């Protein structure tokens, strides 16, 4: 898979003057934060929202004066945002207009196995598939992306990523910010060729690392914020890079949610880690800032190697009366898990004989083998054991888990809610407790460092009645 080949307009790409301006990394804060378009349903009959999406090539304006060829849902990067409502099912009709197999995984969703986007369930070029999403779980920041086996590192890198915001009543009771004050932020590191196209170099050990930070498809953008409360939803859609996000002067953020929705209580944070595929939602109260204040969001992870400036918030005057509120105390009660009835130890390791393969419990992905079987409604302890020198963000499809223990120290309160991906650090053991609900069937679990997942770091779980 070489990457998108759609023709760019000669006028933009051949200008020598533009080329002269090309230098990487690029000037931060030069562009306003783009907001992905919201997808409108084509029908809302019988209480079901039906959406129509074309998976196709497109051109994105990422660098000034250049068009970057992408693969995109509806031909845009990031793909359109779907806003769904708990209790109201959605059908997303995906048309594959690419020249190769594709499929769609709703990451973090309680989704029946046949609609989960298992790596072997693909949509052939020219074909379509109706993904049915029951939307029965609590509000959460989900996302959707390609999951065809063996090439997600490239398809996600080239743009097949979108956000799916599942809302519910609880958020309204809590008076959390809504609409334009509720902002998904898709973070990804990229690199560029001289013609403005995405540069990709495979590195199956370290994973791809880019030198340029994109937020919603713009290089370290600026976002005008009113003196109000904002709900910012961070998604790490990078291939392999982990972030440690911090506001200038370590100003406080109030974490309200993790992968699987609201925490039991908000957690004040001056910085937080975000590993590939993880989501963290924070509230930032800009009311105390003077108009004209500029607050930079930085990546202070030790292995930076990319622009340190992720984006900037520029405080402006304006905005009506504040309708949102900073929550205090309890936001929800997390369901109590059944006592675990088994413990599995999953060693994470690299096999280098006869080609590179990443393994879980000394095995690589085999779609014809079930690696663990469980009963619907039960739970287990899964210990990720990482003797390697890489971070492995371990993800389970179709269900959620709780982080029980980290050998490196305590589990942070911001990580005690529902999760579907957990960053297992080099040399660390992390124990999680998945709850095998709500559907039976075959699901995968894998490393979300995409080059690792593509190189077989993936096993299969079967849930039976
Ligand atoms: Cu977001 Cu199987 O992945
Ligand atoms: Cu990995």
Secondary-structure map with pairings?
Elements: H1 10-13, H2 16-21, E1 49-60, E2 68-73, E3 79-85, E4 90-96, E5 105-107, E6 128-133, E7 140-145, H3 152-157, E8 161-167, H4 169-173, E9 182-190, E10 212-215, E11 218-219, E12 222-225, E13 229-236, E14 243-247, E15 253-258, E16 261-269, E17 271-274, E18 279-285, E19 294-299, E20 309-315, E21 343-351, E22 357-360, E23 372-375, E24 381-385, E25 392-396, E26 400-406, E27 421-424, E28 429-435, E29 441-447, H5 450-454, E30 458-464
Parallel strand pairs: 1-4, 3-8, 9-13, 12-20, 21-24, 23-30
Antiparallel strand pairs: 1-2, 4-6, 5-7, 7-8, 9-10, 10-11, 13-18, 14-17, 14-19, 15-16, 15-18, 19-20, 21-22, 24-28, 25-27, 25-29, 26-28, 29-30
